[in-house]
C-alpha cells in the first residue's frame, strides 16, 4: 500500500508542477482528476464494504503430503465492486510445534456472494490448526486499507501415509503344559533348551548351567524357546534430536506411518497387542479392534514431539517393570542405542524398524534381534513384509 501511495503522490506533485510552470487548463484538469479519483475510490470501497462478512471452511482430516482446499466465502449487502482483499493465514502443527504464515490475495467482484479456494499442502503428520489472523480490504487504487478481524480457528488431523504391509505370523506347533512354544526362538521354555552361550551381564541367574560351568570354569547360560502366545508391544519413538544429530520431520512421519499401518494389519489378523511411545512416560495403549486402533492413531498424532530426546529412551524402558508384560517388541524408531537393544533382546524377542534418511542400509540380523531399515524418502512406494 505504501508503494501505491508514493507513486500516486508523485503523480500529483508532477501534475501540480506542470500546472504551475505551464499555467494551462489541461494541466489543471489532470490535477483535479488526480485529487477527485482517490475520493471516489474511497467512497465506493466504503459503500461496498457495507455488511462485509467472510467465512471459511476446511476438511477435518487428510493424509500427509495431500493438498486440501481452504474454502473462502465472502458476502456483502450490495453489489458494489470490492477492491483487493488480502488474508494472512497461520498454519500451526501442534505435534512438531512448527508454524508458518501465508498471504492469500483475492480479487473480489461486484457480486453479493463470492467463493474462493486456496490449496494448502499438509507436509507433516499431526494436528494442524489453521487460523485467519486478519483480513485487509484495499480500494481499487490500493491507497486506502480497511482491516477486519480474522475468523475462528479450524483444525485438520493429518494422518500418516498409507502403507502396504504384509504381516506374517510365525506359528508354533510344539505344545508343552498347555502352552504353545517356539523351538526356533530363544526365550522362556524351560523344558526345551535351544542353545548354550557364555554368561553376559544382565542374564538371569536361573538360566546358568551350573554343572557345565563348573567343568569348564566359565559361566554358561541356557537359552530356551519362547511361548507362542505372545504379548506384543509395538513401541515407537519420535524425536527432534538424537545426540548431536537432528531428526527430520519426514523420518518421524515414517515412524508414525509404520506404527499405525502395523497395528491395523495386526488387528485385521485378530492379533491383539499394545502400542506405546518410548519418549517420555510410557503409556501402552491396548489395541484389539479397528475402533481402538483408530483411537490409538488419534493419541499418537496429538502427542507432541519432544524438542530433545535423550539417548536413554530404551534404557529407561529397561528400568521399568512393564517390559515383563511382553514377550515380543517391535521397536519403530529413527535412531536407537545398540547396547540397549542387545540388553533388551536378552529378555524378549525384539525386532527394530529403523527409519533412515536415504537408502543406504540393508536388513541386518544381529545376535538376539533383527533390524529392518526403511528409507524415509521412498517408504510410501514400497511394500514390506513384517514377521511376528
Q: Can you describe this structure in just a few lines?
A:
The protein is of the alpha/beta class. It is built from seven helices and 24 strands.
Strand order of the largest sheet: 19-18-15-20-21-23-22
What is the count of DSSP helices, taking H or I runs of 4+ residues? Answer: 7
Number of strands: 24
**Rg, Å, rounded:** 33 Å
> Percent of residues in beta strands?
35-45%
Q: Tell me which oligomeric state these chains represent.
A: single chain
Low-confidence stretches: 171-185, 187-191
Class from secondary-structure proportions? alpha/beta
Mean of all residue-level pLDDT scores: 80
Shape: elongated
Helix content: 25-40%
Question: What is the CA–CA distance across the termini?
Answer: 63 Å
Main β-sheet, in a few words?
Answer: 7 strands, mixed
List the defining traits of the structure above.
single chain, 388 residues, alpha/beta, 24 strands
Overall description:
The chain has 388 residues and is α/β, with parallel strands linked by helices. It contains 7 helices and 24 strands. It has a 7-stranded mixed beta sheet with strand order 19-18-15-20-21-23-22, sandwiched between helices. Helix 4 packs antiparallel against helix 5 (290-301).
Amino acid at each position: 500500500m505504501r508503494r501505491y501511495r508514493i507513486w500516486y503522490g508523485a503523480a500529483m506533485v508532477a501534475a501540480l508542477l506542470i500546472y504551475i510552470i505551464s499555467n494551462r487548463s489541461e494541466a489543471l484538469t489532470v490535477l483535479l482528476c488526480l485529487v477527485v479519483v482517490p475520493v471516489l475510490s474511497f467512497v465506493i470501497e466504503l459503500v461496498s464494504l457495507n455488511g462485509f462478512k467472510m467465512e471459511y471452511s476446511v476438511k477435518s482430516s487428510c493424509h500427509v503430503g495431500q493438498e486440501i482446499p481452504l474454502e473462502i466465502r465472502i458476502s456483502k449487502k450490495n453489489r458494489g465492486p470490492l477492491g483487493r482483499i488480502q488474508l494472512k493465514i497461520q498454519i500451526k502443527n501442534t505435534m512438531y510445534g512448527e508454524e508458518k504464515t501465508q498471504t492469500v490475495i483475492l480479487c473480489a467482484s461486484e457480486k453479493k456472494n463470492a467463493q474462493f479456494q486456496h490449496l494448502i499442502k499438509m507436509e507433516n503428520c499431526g494436528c494442524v490448526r489453521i487460523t485467519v489472523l486478519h483480513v485487509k480490504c484495499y480500494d481499487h487504487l490500493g491507497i486506502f486499507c480497511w482491516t477486519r478481524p480474522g475468523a475462528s480457528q479450524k483444525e485438520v488431523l493429518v494422518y500418516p501415509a498409507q502403507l502396504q504391509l504384509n504381516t506374517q505370523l510365525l506359528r508354533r506347533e510344539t505344545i508343552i503344559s498347555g502352552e504353545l512354544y517356539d523351538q526356533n526362538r530363544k526365550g522362556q521354555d524351560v523344558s526345551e533348551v535351544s542353545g548354550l552361550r557364555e554368561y553376559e551381564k544382565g542374564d538371569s541367574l536361573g538360566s546358568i548351567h551350573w554343572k557345565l560351568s563348573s567343568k569348564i570354569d566359565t559361566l554358561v547360560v541356557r537359552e530356551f524357546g519362547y511361548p507362542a502366545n505372545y504379548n506384543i508391544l509395538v513401541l515407537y519413538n519420535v524425536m527432534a534430536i538424537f545426540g548431536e544429530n537432528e531428526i527430520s520431520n519426514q523420518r518421524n512421519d515414517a515412524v508414525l506411518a509404520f506404527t499405525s499401518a502395523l497395528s491395523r494389519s495386526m488387528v485385521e489378523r485378530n492379533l491383539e497387542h499394545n502400542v506405546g511411545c518410548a519418549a517420555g512416560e510410557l503409556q501402552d495403549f491396548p489395541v484389539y479392534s479397528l475402533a481402538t486402533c483408530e483411537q490409538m492413531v488419534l493419541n499418537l498424532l496429538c502427542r507432541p514431539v519432544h524438542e530433545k530426546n535423550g539417548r536413554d529412551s530404551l534404557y529407561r524402558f529397561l528400568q521399568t517393570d512393564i517390559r515383563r508384560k511382553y514377550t515380543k517388541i517391535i521397536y519403530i524408531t529413527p535412531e536407537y542405542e545398540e547396547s540397549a537393544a542387545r540388553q533388551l533382546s536378552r529378555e524378549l524377542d525384539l525386532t527394530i524398524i529403523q527409519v533412515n534418511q536415504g537408502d543406504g542400509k540393508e536388513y541386518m540380523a544381529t545376535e538376539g534381534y533383527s533390524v529392518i531399515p526403511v528409507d524415509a524418502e521412498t517408504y510410501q512406494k514400497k511394500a514390506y513384509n513384517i514377521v511376528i
